[in-house]
Amino acid sequence: MSERRRFERELEDLGVREHFLPPWITFPPPPTIGFEFDLNYGIDRQVLAALAVDRATWPREHVVVTDHDDAPGKDGFKVKLDGPRYEMATEPFEIWKSGKARWGTVLKDMRAFTTKMNTKCGNAKADKSVTITLPSGSAKVGHPRHFTLGEGPFASIPILPLGETKTAFRESCGVAGVPQATITIPMARVDDLVSEVKNSEPQRPNDRRPGQSLSGYWRHRQGLRSQALYDAQSAVNKSRNEHIRRKTRIDATTMVTDRNFTKTLQGFMILLVSYLRTSQLKYDFVPPKPNQIKSWDYEGFAKAYLPINVKTPFRLLFKDPIMSDAERKVFLELYGNPAVRDNLFALAENDSAKRSGTNMLFPEGPNGRVRSHQEVFFNHAPTWDEFVDKTIKDDPLKVEKVNTIKKKKHALGDEVNRPGIPGDSIS
Question: Per-block average pLDDT, block size 10, for the chain (427 residues)?
Fold first, then answer.
């Protein structure tokens, strides 16, 4: 009996449901985590043009630029072009001791690559044969400190350290990267993940503000992403606890308990409400004036305002085998169906005068840039009601307009991975 209970506890720790698993049903794969680093090195198209580099040889967006391979058993990471920057992306690592050991090995190779860039940059000198006027309309000029990697499919393409300085081009050779993590965990652990994120904030060295980005230009504020997540967690947990305490009846034979309002449903709702909450926070979309010290919300893409960017469409999270019939029934009867949907919206906005199914799913952005970007792909920017309807009705959100963006998941009729966010384009 003690062995059976120990086995059940192990299943609970893994987030596996508490019911008998028939022999033809396999356990889910272990949780994983992968990383991306947008480096402060890359290409400058003005420099390539000034150096008369054949345009046919310039690397295109998202193309792999070195010989590193993130396939299983290979290097464990790849380097591709993301905008002007080089981006290092790793394989997913299992969140076990073996995954930690593998990450240590890959990290050594990544450091070797960045050390090579740093060394080559240090050996290069500013090219005075190339003069670029930056920024637009300014009298300031700069000479790029460029070099070639000498390896991979773009071995002869000049790259350089990127970043703003008083002389247009960064003069230092330090290598840094904006980090991003992709983690796969059971939805039953989302609440724990949010708590870990929140609890980590006071431990950051030199933290000036909760939720502040770990890297990047200090005037570009990032903290509101986290606030949407914390607000969602607080509202969902308060509502869940109250329904369980009251044993709310959803029909003649069913009352709410922690066995149907499960940790899985809790995690699903925290993620969903965090998306809704992003449009209700107060932002500062006004850029600073010259010599003015202030931060502002500069991003023009919906993804930038998400606390956690869920890469699996919500309609799939709401289906078997992730969500059970009992869990879906609780969600629909208490929050999801049209007659009670205001209960869901109230978790994202306390003020009844400010909440509506017609609310835009994401903030407008500076000068309406978020809305404008979405309207390149959709007849109109997605709303709260549309987001929820497509989730519960298993209705894919698809690109509705012909457009000229030549990227994955952007063509007319393609399903969008995330509501209001075509493909992987926003970074």
Answer: 46 44 58 91 92 94 94 93 93 89 95 96 92 62 89 95 73 86 90 88 55 48 70 98 97 96 98 96 84 78 86 92 95 98 98 97 93 94 97 95 84 79 34
Q: pTM value?
A: 0.80
Q: At residue 251, what are phi and psi to the nearest 5 degrees?
A: -165, -175
Separation in Å, CA 32 to CA 13, 29, 64, 375: 15, 9, 23, 34
**Residue closest to 306 by CA, chosen among 375, 405, 222:** 222
Sequence-distant (6+) residues with CB within 8 A of 255 are: 247, 248, 249
Q: How far is CA 402 from CA 74, 189, 383, in A?
A: 39, 39, 21
Residue boundaries of the structural domains of the chain: 32-178, 186-392
3-state secondary structure the chain: CHHHHHHHHHHHHCCCCCCCCCCCCCCCCCCEEEEEEEEEEECCHHHHHHCCCCHHHCCCCCCECCCCCCCCCCCCEEEEEECCEEEEEECCEECCHHHHHHHHHHHHHHHHHHHHHHHHHHHCCCCCCCCEECCCCCCCEECCCCECCCCCCCCCCCEEECCCCCCCCCCCCCCCEEEEEEEECCHHHHHHHHHHHHHHHHHCCCCCCCCCCCCCCCCECCCHHHHHHHHHHHHHHHHHHHHHHHCCEEECCEECCCCCCCHHHHHHHHHHHHHHHCCCCCCCCCCCCCCCCCCECCCCCHHHHCCCCCCCCHHHHCCCCCCCHHHHHHHHHHHHCHHHCHHHHHHHCCCHHHCCCCCECCCCCHHHHHHHHHCCCCCCCCEHHHHHHHHHCCCCCECCCCCCCCCCCCCCCCECCECCECCCCCC
**59 phi, psi to nearest 5 deg:** -65, 140
SS3 for 350-361 is: CCHHHCCCCCEC
